[in-house]
Amino acid sequence: MTHEEFIAWLRVEVNEGRMSVQQMHDLLNQKALFDVYRTDIETQFRNYIVGYIGDTRQESRNIHELLNRAKTQFPNRMLYFEAIGFDLF
Questions:
Q1: Where are the beta strands (DSSP E) in 1-89?
Q2: Is 61 a member of any domain?
Q3: 34 belongs to a structural domain
């Protein structure tokens, strides 16, 4: 999904009431951080799931562990993540 497609998808989520504007902006900010460090992430964290939440990088080999940690450490914040070097599903 391109960045433009991602923004369009987020706008649909907001327009249909599944996400607030504040959540959309939080998610876009986390993705922006990810994008700044994308080259380093793709080099250093192959076969990890890497994301940003609360302006903090998080990484794990297990999606459930990553989601649980994010929920515990940063309640009410949006997590942007990508699987590095593999398809998650």
A1: 49-53, 56-60, 80-83
A2: yes
A3: yes
In a domain, 89, yes or no: no
For the stretch 36-83, pLDDT in tens is: 999 999 999 999 999 999 999 999 999 999 999 999 999 999 999 999
Compute the half-sphere exposure of residue 87: CA atoms within 13 Å on the CB side of its CA: 1
Burial (CB count <10 Å: 0-12, 13-18, 19+), residue 3 = exposed
Global pTM exceeds 0.85:
yes
Question: What's the number of domains the chain is made of?
Answer: 1
Domain that holds residue 57: 3-83
